[in-house]
Design brief:
Blueprint: E1 2-5, H1 10-21, E2 27-31, E3 49-52, H2 56-63, E4 69-72, H3 84-104, E5 109-114, H4 140-154, E6 162-167, E7 169-171, H5 184-195, E8 198-201, E9 214-215, E10 217-219, H6 220-233, E11 238-242, E12 248-249, H7 250-260, E13 267-270, H8 274-277, H9 289-293, H10 303-315
Parallel strand pairs: 1-2, 1-4, 2-3, 4-5, 5-6, 6-11, 7-10, 8-13
Antiparallel strand pairs: 9-12
Helix pairs in contact: 1-6, 3-4, 5-7, 7-10
């Protein structure tokens, strides 16, 4: 059995698809399953059992001998939420319990961290573990992810294999339910369909022109390729960046979305919302050398390749992966 937490969510459901493609069909899907808009993400997937996240540890105590691997993808990911107690429960303490169970039952673990831990990038975007305690995340979500990374590195007792993945800006199918937190590609597509134009955030940083804010956008299909690589690899434990390794502008992203629809770009700019303006990352770019150094040699899809696949094969017709 392979456990996937956050199974009904964006990355978790795509990971289950990838596992099914590799003929791993005994999947234990862990989530709260109370959000009906996420239900289509699991339709057609081969899942052995659904377990509510609050009953998961009791279930694991009874079934651990059958478990081969745990992907802990589930988390509260709202970067605008300011109540840290929510993140403390779901992102920190829950993750600690999974960590302890993986030690006790000798189960390898991959868990989701985040590039939000890097803050404004004052220390760069290298997954150097010695720098992690010095990072300055910009919001409670990023703080919770960094807190757990620091805690994991400090532990004397660890799972025999574990990896934390700092997801950069992931986009792709199965994110329909995420609302404001969905990728800019998703929002750009919907804006084009509704009005024929895309509104991007105006720059409030004199070092960046409007639309030239840059992020490391990574396609979810590449993300799940890395996840399954680590499941098969099971050595070189540690914390790894997971981005494309190449920063691209939001203007590039919007233009690529128009081109995927066979349209000429029409792009305008609006002020960045006040509640995120002071905590806005103007540049991110993952240094991917560490993952490459342990043998991951697959190329990452370019922004144009990923957007074309996402738009033409999933967003048009609202299909799920």
């Amino acid at each position: 059995m392979i456990i996937v937490t956050g199974a009904a969510g964006f990355i978790g459901s795509c990971l289950i698809s990838k596992l099914n493609q590799e003929n791993f069909n005994f999947i234990i899907a862990v989530d709260d399953f109370t959000t009906p808009e996420k239900e289509p993400n699991l339709v057609g997937k081969r899942i052995q059992e659904r377990v509510h996240r609050e009953q998961f540890f009791q279930w694991l105590d009874q079934n651990y001998q059958e478990v081969e691997f745990i992907f802990h993808i589930g988390a509260r990911t709202d970067t605008t939420e300011q109540d840290y107690t929510i993140f403390d429960h779901l992102n920190v303490e829950y993750s600690k319990q999974i960590w302890y169970k993986c030690i006790d039952y000798q189960i390898p673990l991959v868990y989701a961290s985040s590039a939000a831990t890097y803050g404004l990038g004052e220390l760069g975007y290298d997954d150097n573990e010695s720098q992690i305690p010095h990072l300055k995340p910009l919001n409670p979500y990023g703080e919770s992810k960094n807190e757990f990374d620091i805690w994991a590195l400090e532990q004397d007792r660890k799972p025999f294999f574990w990896a934390g993945l700092k997801f950069f800006n992931v986009y792709g199918p199965n994110e329909y339910h995420k609302g404001r937190m969905a990728s800019v590609v998703f929002h750009a597509y919907n804006q084009i369909c509704q009005s024929g134009e895309v509104k991007l955030f105006r720059s409030h940083n004199p070092n960046f022109n409007d639309g030239e804010q840059m992020r490391d956008f990574v396609y979810v299909k590449d993300v799940v390729e890395v996840c399954t690589f680590l499941m098969h690899h099971r050595r070189n434990s540690g914390i790894y960046n997971l981005g494309s390794g190449k920063a691209r502008t939001f203007f590039d992203l919007a233009s690529s979305t128009f081109r995927a629809l066979g349209q000429d770009p029409r792009i305008t700019f609006v002020d960045t919302p006040a509640d995120i303006r002071d905590k806005y990352q103007y540049f991110t770019q993952a240094n991917m050398a560490k993952l490459r150094s342990i043998g991951y040699d697959r190329p990452f899809q370019s922004l144009e390749e990923g957007i074309t696949d996402y738009v033409q094969n999933y967003l048009v017709g609202k299909r799920y992966y």
